[in-house]
Design brief:
- It contains five helices and eleven strands; from the N terminus they run βββαβαβαβααβββββ.
- It is an alpha/beta fold.
- The protein has one domain: Metallo-beta-lactamase, Chain A (4-Layer Sandwich).
- The protein has a seven-stranded mixed β-sheet with strand order 4-1-2-3-5-6-7. A four-stranded antiparallel β-sheet has the order 8-9-10-11, with no helix packed on it.
- The two termini are 24 Å apart.
Length: 216
């Protein structure tokens, strides 16, 4: 979506993953995306995809990576140009390249940070990259004019979604791994179950080969 004086939103294809056959959520290869919001106040990235170089993840999901540098370059940007990162949640396929974005403000719900300390929830060095500071928030937040975080727990305790106004009064919702949130003024934003997501995501503490949740 774009227009004169409006923000633009672009999907960035960051990786493809193939869950191992023994995983309960095994399925054919599927893509993992981030979203770039080109905003007058500075570029915003929503989720950074799967990280690189973790043997455990490589064995379970066989990720094929597509360069985040090349993805941003297609829009005339570099990693260092990104001013804000909105991490929907801290599962490995949403925060994996946050280490590349330490110069940006990385926004994550405090409840998600607390949850992500559990064993097998995520890849710790991707969720909490050394030398990279996370900015923890509690609930909803207006990030920039027309860009609002909406707390949307369910898939994870601290999941957050994003509502974007395209500059023409048209709200768009980015739900991360939750169903899209009704934009402000368009229904009950809280009309969703709060609790475990009705998806293949499950705590797999009984299987040391498996991370918490499916890669969504």
């Amino acid at each position: 979506m774009s227009g004169a004086g409006a923000v633009e939103v672009h999907r960035l294809h960051l990786s493809d993953v193939t869950p191992a056959p023994h995983l309960p959520w095994a399925r054919p290869t599927f893509p993992v995306f981030g979203l770039l919001v080109v905003h007058p106040d500075g570029p915003i990235l929503i989720d950074s995809g799967v990280g690189i170089g973790n043997r455990f993840i490589d064995q379970l999901y066989s990720p094929v990576h597509h360069s985040i540098d090349e993805a941003l370059d297609r829009h005339g940007l570099r990693v260092d140009d990104v001013t804000t990162v909105i991490t929907s949640h801290l599962h490995f396929d949403h925060c994996g390249q946050n280490s590349r974005l330490g110069g940006a403000t990385i926004l994550v719900q405090r409840a998600e940070v607390d949850a992500a300390t559990a064993a097998l929830y995520t890849v710790p060095e991707w969720a909490f990259p050394p030398g990279v500071e996370l900015t923890m928030i509690d609930g909803d937040l207006e990030v920039a004019n027309g860009v609002q975080i909406i707390a949307s727990p369910g898939h994870t305790p601290g999941h957050q979604s994003v509502v974007i106004d395209d500059g023409h009064g048209n709200p768009h919702t980015i739900g991360g791994d939750e169903p899209p949130v009704p934009p402000p003024g368009h229904g009950d934003q809280r009309a969703r179950p709060v609790g475990p997501s009705p998806s293949p995501a499950r705590t797999m503490q009984g299987d040391p080969r498996t991370l918490h949740g499916d890669p969504r």
